[in-house]
Each structure stands twice: as C-alpha cells, then as structure tokens.
Amino acid sequence: MNQAQGIQTQIPKFTGQNYYHWHIQIKVLFESQDLWNIIDEGFKELGANPTEEATATYKDAVKKDKRALHIIFQSVNETIFERIALAKTSKEAWNILHKSYKGENRVKNIKLQSLRSDFDALRMKEGESIEDYFNRTVLIVNQLRMNEDNISEQKIVEKILRSLTRNYESVVITIEETKDLHDVSTEELMGILQSHELRLKRYDDVPIEHAFQVQNSIQDRYKPTRNDGSMKQRNKGKGRNWNNIRCYNCQRLGHTAKFCQKKDEGEKPDNVLIHKDDESDEHEDTMFMIFNMEEAVKDDCWFLDSGCSNHMTGSRSLFINLDESIKKEVRTGDDKRLEVVGSGEVSVSFKGKDRTIPNVFYVEGCK
Questions:
Q1: Which residues contact 219 (CB under 8 A, 6 or more apart)?
Q2: I need a labelling partner for 227 at 20 to 30 A (CA). Which of 119, 158, 292, 351 fits?
Q3: How many CB atoms lie within 10 A of CB 162?
Q4: How far is CA 252 from CA 261, 307, 336, 351, in A?
Q5: Is the Cβ–Cβ distance between 344 and 323 less than 8 Å?
Q6: Which of 203, 210, 118, 141 shows the shortest CA–CA distance to 167?
Q7: Which of 363, 358, 321 is nearest to 341 (CA)?
Q8: pLDDT in tens, 212-257
Q9: What angle do CA 121, 124, 129 make, to 5 degrees?
Q10: What is the 3-state secondary structure (H, E, C) of 43-71?
C-alpha cells in the first residue's frame, strides 16, 4: 500500500493473464505519483564535471526511478518477477513486460486482426440489455485502441445501430434520419437506446398472447346445463355476460365451440369459412378462420379464435409503426385472396392496460 496525502492506494497485481487491465491501472498510478515520465523517457547519466544543479537533478531522477522500479516489483507475482529481477531501471523493467505480454509488431498485428474480426461479428443477443451490449462493445473497442487502432466514434455508433435486435428498429430509423452520426457519441447513443428499452419493458409485464386467450379460471365458472348447448352462468352477476359470446361452430349465442353440441354432427353453416389445406399453395399465408356475416353484431361482442395464423386489420390508424416494404398475399378459407401491404405493431387496451400486438398485417379490403 502507498499512502499519499492521506489516501491509500492499492497496487494492482499482474498475474500474466490481465495485462490489458493492469497496464491501464498501473500507468494511472505512476501518473498520480509523478513517476510516469521517468518510466517512459528514462534519465541521463551524469557527464564529466557536472554542475551542482545537474547533480541534484540526477539524484532526484534516480530516487524517482528506484521508487517506480519498486512499485513494478511489487505489482507482479513471483513467476513474472523473475523476468525483470535483473532490470536496473524502471524503464528497462517496463519494456521487458511490454514486449513479453503486449507483443512485438508481428504479434500485435495478429491480435489486431482478431480484435477487428470480433468487432465486425458483434451482434446484440435476444433478451440482452442495452447496457450489457454496450459493455461488450466497449471492451473490444478499448483493446483495439490500446493496440494503436484509432477507431473513430462514428464507426462505433454506426456498428451499434446496425447490430441491434429488431425491437430497436424504429428508434434506429429515427436516429439515422434526424441526427448527424458524426456528432453522436456512444454515451449519447446509449442514453437514447436505454430510454427506448424502458418504454419497451412497460409492455412486458404481461405476455401478449394472454390478451386474447380465455383463461381457465373463467371457463371453469360456466358449465353446460342443457343438451342444446346453451349455458347458464354459475355465480350469476360475478362473471362475463355469456349471452354476448357467439359459437363459431353453430353461430348461436350463449356458448363457445368447446361446449357446442353440433360440432360432432358435421353441421357447418354457410356463413363460416373453414381453413383448408392446399398443397399447391403451401408457400402462401392462410387465415385459419374468417366470419362473413351480414347481421348486426353488438359492439361489445367478441369472437374468440386462438387458432388464427395471423392477426390482420384494414385500419391503418391502429398501427404504432408500420413497415410498408412487406408485400404478400393471404388466402382465406374460401380462396379469397387479400393483399398485404405492410406489417407492424398495433396497440390495444386490455383490462385497463395498454398492450402491443406484434407482426399484424395491414390488409387492403380487411375491416
């Protein structure tokens, strides 16, 4: 431990495997003790007939050099100490360590190639936080700079924007269109992306799939009581009004397809279009079920179908964001073809909370 101006400083230990971190820490320590110049530049020996001023300067330089050499000796383990035990000056000991562990030009070039390859391969992992991804990136960038690769801030920012997951696509487009990337620092970029990350987490407390699933706890409250498939409500007044629930099998109100008595009789009303396989069109997206009804339906009446292959809507105003580069066709059960002119996220309100549904098709002609 060294003590200067009442502050204790612990000397970082070099074990042979942590040269990158040790090099940074020990250099800062030497600079704080006004010893780095003596290590970096060394000192000149006294000439013949030195003046008193030259002699005093020389003695002061030797004193600083021995103090720096002592710190280097203390900062390495016994095995590494043997490499520098015969060094006469701190500069000599430092150069031995530098050449042994940082490498000569040929070794340094190979290491640079490896680091550049790691930088090019950087990609944000699904579920990884912005902070963790930035930490991985900064670690490689610092090592590149330590090996004399002056990678620019703009190149780092562009790399990060290219390698984020799809959740950040909208904010990436906004940054690229509204900001000059030459003026954006990695710290500023991290702040912007973390703000977007916090907004995304607001929608993650309840899984999206639960928004349109009938929970078992609700289903268990209602049991069929007559052979015609209608249902009476147990604990009347406590649950949903099942008179507004329509069976997609027989089109009658008051029960779901699970409890429909006609589902095994082969009855299929004309106004229901059922999905059918078509080997020749396997590459096309097909809706699992669609209702084609002319009768008036109450606004608070929902049709529940957990088997749909895609959510889609014809209302552009529902979309939070929309990628209009996605073009395809979907086929309904009656072979009607609709044109998809985009895909994006739609916001809905469920149990008083806003939820986001991803990958919703914007379909012309679909309401």
A1: 258
A2: 292
A3: 10
A4: 11, 20, 25, 26
A5: yes
A6: 203
A7: 363
A8: 444 444 444 444 444 444 444 444 444 445 556 667 677 777 766 6
A9: 150
A10: CCCCCCCCCHHHHHHHHHHHHHHHHHHHH
User: What is the model's pTM?
Assistant: 0.38
| Measured distance CA(326)–CA(271) in Å, rounded | 31
Beta bridge partners of 232: 223
Nearest-angstrom CA–CA distance, 119 and 101: 22
* Helix count and strand count (H, E) for the chain: 11, 12
Q: How far apart are alpha carbons 363 and 310 in whole angstroms?
A: 11
Taking the C-alpha atoms of residue 84 and residue 9, their distance in angstroms, rounded to an integer, is 23
Distance of alpha carbon 221 from alpha carbon 234, whole angstroms: 6
DSSP state, residue 14: B
Interval 111-154: pLDDT, tens: 888 889 999 999 999 999 999 999 999 999 988 887 778 899 99
Burial of 330 (0-12, 13-18, 19+ CB in 10 A): buried
Neighbours of 218 (CB within 10 A): 11
Whole-angstrom distance, CA of residue 14 vs CA of residue 97: 10
Given a contact cutoff of 8 angstroms between Cβ atoms, the answer to whether 156 and 186 are in contact is yes
DSSP conformation class of 76: B
Task: For residue 366, count other CB atoms closer than 10 A to its CB.
Answer: 17
Written as one string, the DSSP assignment of 247-263 is -TTT--BSS-GGG-TTT
* Opening angle at CA 248, ends 247 and 250, nearest 5: 70
User: Which amino acid appears at position 144 of this protein?
Assistant: L
The answer to whether 124 touches 164, Cβ cutoff 8 Å, is yes
Q: Do 303 and 328 contact (CB within 8 A), yes or no?
A: no
Q: Let me know: does 321 contact 345? Beta carbons within 8 Å.
A: yes
Pairing assessment for the beta strands 337-350 and 328-331 based on DSSP bridges: antiparallel
Burial class (CB in 10 A: 0-12, 13-18, 19+), 115: buried
The amino acid that residue 77 corresponds to is N
